Amino acid sequence: MSRIVYLNGDYLPEEEAKISVFDRGFVMGDAVYEVTSVLGGKVLEFEGHMARLERSMNELEMHCDLTRDEWLAIHRELIARNGIDEGLVYLQVSRGNAGDRDFHYPPEGTPPTVVLYTQAKPNLADDPKAKVGIKVISLPDLRWHRRDIKTVQLLYPSMAKMAAEKAGKNDAWFVEGGYVTEGSSNNVYIVKGNKIVTRHLSEDILHGITRASLLKYAAEAQMEIEERPFTIEEAQGADEAFFTSASAFVMPVVEIDGVTLGAGSPGPVAARLREIYLDESRKSAV
Length: 286
Ligand code: PDD
Description:
Mean pLDDT: 97
GO cellular component, one term: cytosol
Function: Acts on leucine, isoleucine and valine.
Distance between the termini: 26 Å
CATH topology of the largest domain: D-amino Acid Aminotransferase, Chain A, domain 2
Catalytic activity: L-isoleucine + 2-oxoglutarate = (S)-3-methyl-2-oxopentanoate + L-glutamate; L-valine + 2-oxoglutarate = 3-methyl-2-oxobutanoate + L-glutamate; L-leucine + 2-oxoglutarate = 4-methyl-2-oxopentanoate + L-glutamate
CATH architecture of the largest domain: Alpha-Beta Barrel
Shape: globular
Order of helices and strands: EEHEEHHEEHEHEEEEHEHEEEH
Cofactor: pyridoxal 5'-phosphate
EC number: 2.6.1.42
CATH class of the largest domain: Alpha Beta
Bound molecules: N-(5'-phosphopyridoxyl)-D-alanine
Number of strands: 15
Low-confidence stretches: none
Number of domains: 2
CATH superfamily of the largest domain: D-amino Acid Aminotransferase, subunit A, domain 2
Strand content: 25-35%
């Protein structure tokens, strides 16, 4: 049975879902997206992802008439039709079919292209990488400067992941002006004693939905939180490091640019926060 995807109001087998060659997402990277996790057949952090989607669209003067209830209904329908227990839902809204290649936005009222599909990930919560930890390299942050808008312009993060793979590592952390911004597709943290340090929110990083919840749970667990930039050298000397994203939850980092952190295995803070995050987000899943 082929996967059923959603395209502009229709549920279709993936082979039948077609978009225009003039679609702004395809031609200009003019599209925003969200990725949400599914555990036990339910969507995690739904409200947070919807709020960020609305913000991304507002920042780009993009319009879509779907309500939050309608978005949720589509997520649920796709999860049911594709029998997803653990996995991801990918959602993308582009500025639509411009009818031609033109730098200017198409006329107001041009309908957006709305695409959603699922990806089954049977061991999403029980990811073996969380038990051994991730190794990262650092790279200069060569992305555009509105990283707070979640656009599909992901070529540089792709290049970074390929560079990490070629170096025999798992991922890359980006550095700008001497300080770490974020990971290629995640927000990053270091741990020093009872304190978590993570870069403050600005246009320099994506405002992670997992980040917001993680910091709330960490505060509830009496941890100290410092939102400020840090360097690769400071991270290499930290007790622990980890990253967060909707698809990886809380992921320990055990090596940065060839320097092993602590004992080279995931530390207790990251492990505990991963457990809390998974418990809490399962509870609030819809
Ligand atoms: N990436 N920073 C960047 C650059 C990201 O691409 C992501 C998410 C995050 C974490 O945000 P959140 O916690 O809301 O997932 C931070 C998604 C998972 C992706 O592109 O697959």
